[in-house]
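Sanity check

After download, print the first record. It should look like this:
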Amino acid sequence: MNFAPWLSMLAVVLAGGATALQAPTNARLATAVNGPVNAAFVSFAVGTAALGILAAILHTRPDVEAAKGLPWYAWIGGLYGVIFVVAATWAVPRLGVAMTITLMVAGQLMLSLILDHFGALGVPQAPISLTRLAGVALVIGGVILVRRG
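Expected structure tokens:
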């Protein structure tokens, strides 16, 4: 039996849990460092240091030649992270963790359907279907239930 897909799914679920922890952690930090942008800066600095240590432990080195051939958008992933972290840091004290994360997941799913449908940014193409739309509708329904809860 191939366990790789199950391990991948478990890793992603755990990473999702980490984002649920990250939002209130950074919101708490924001109270001490004068706002969500400063909290995000500290968060990214700590994350950058952790990645540097991990890369050193794993002895990984970037392939400079391959990096030169990348399209421009391959270099701006960190900007999306900035938007995510600042928005979550700002929203948690106003909306709560569950509402913030639920809304973020809804936004991720809606854009994901579009990216998959068109095969944008080099992802495999997967057309929008009624089943996939129903899945997103269920998440949006979850947003409504969390809001009313």
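If your output differs, re-run the checksum step. Summary of this record's structure: Helices lie at 4-33, 36-58, 64-68, 77-95, 97-118, 130-148.
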